[in-house]
Amino acid sequence: MNVLDYIENIKDSNLKIKLKSVYDKANLVLKNHIEKETDFFNIYELKKATAVLNSFDDINYKIYKGYKDSYYGVIYIYPYYIEENDLEEPIKIIKIDGNFKFKKLSHRDYLGSLLSLGIKREKIGDILVNDDSSYIIVKKEISSYIINNLNNVNQNKVNLKEVDYKDIVFNGYDLKEEILVITSLRLDLIISKVYNISRTKSLNIIKNEHVKIDFRVESNNSNTLEEGNLISVRHYGRFILKSIEGSTKKGKTRVIVQKFI
After folding, report:
1. Which of 54, 129, 139, 188 is the most exposed place for a label (fewest CB within 10 A)?
2. Residues 71, 127: Cα–Cα separation, whole Å
3. Residue 201 belongs to what H/E stretch?
4. In total, how many domains does the chain have?
5. What is the pLDDT of residues 221-247, one digit of tens each?
6. Which one, of 8, 24, 28, 25, lies nearest residue 16 by Cα?
7. pTM of the model as a whole
8. Which runs of consecutive H residues, i.e. helices, occur in 117-251?
9. Which of 86, 113, 129 is the last residue of a domain?
10. Nearest residue to 176 via CA among 244, 232, 256, 260
């Protein structure tokens, strides 16, 4: 299967558009000896995009995430003869400070404030939220605009400045760990257990394509989850299947999940 057939067989229309864009950018780099970059892709989209890029000869690419455990990254595509050290990084890190003693801000608060400035979601990478400060990873071309225009986040006055990668101090995502006993690792059963909803409701959520596994839309309710999977359920939240702890005496499975708060 050639690369165009590979793209055409992608069922997700949004992903197909993104991969076609990557294909077009790679061809421009190859033919015109220029450098091109994408907007932010999630980790699933990055995997698919690199499969497209690996089909090309005489081009190189580098993924910029801004933080080692980031869920989003920008792909920089360039001619093979250009040294990686000569590339101009396409992302910036912005640190946000404020008086957060009386009102804790969430990922949603920051994202909502950024989108209210008219910024497209794909221009924003990870948002790393601490209790006393936070970091947002953005495309380079919008960094100054954000610094000059983002004055408040959910009615909290904030101060912004650009910082280097080495200056990021992130305490980790705010997670609540739970031990669950389940009859199966099927997607519908785990969602029912995690969010305490009926299996019928979890089946409808999956059928309506409101569930993603590692950012990939999943409509198969019998899909078996694996350790490390990140599951997103629209209107409910996200959780990680941290570990599978083994079986109980009654033959059920004990797992540990981490819910994003």
Report:
1. 54
2. 10
3. helix 199-207
4. 3
5. 999 999 999 999 999 999 999 999 989
6. 8
7. 0.86
8. 143-149, 187-195, 199-207
9. 86
10. 260
Domain hosting 224: range is: 175-260
Task: Clarify whether residues 81 and 95 are in a common domain.
Answer: no
Give the distance from CA 32 to its chain's centroid: 31
Q: Are 168 and 93 in contact (CB under 8 A)?
A: yes
Give every CB contact of residue 228 below 8 A, 6+ residues apart in sequence.
240, 241, 242
What is the CATH classification number for the domain harbouring 186? 3.10.290.10
Tens-place pLDDT, residues 119-154: 999 999 999 999 888 999 999 999 999 999 999 999
Q: Count Cβ atoms within 10 A of the Cβ of residue 248 and give its class: 0-12 exposed, 13-18 middle, 19 or more buried.
A: exposed
**Cβ atoms 35, 76 nearer than 8 A:** yes
Please check whether residues 78 and 95 belong to one and the same domain: no
The structure tokens 């101009």 sit at 88
Q: Which of 112, 138, 167 is the last residue of a domain?
A: 167
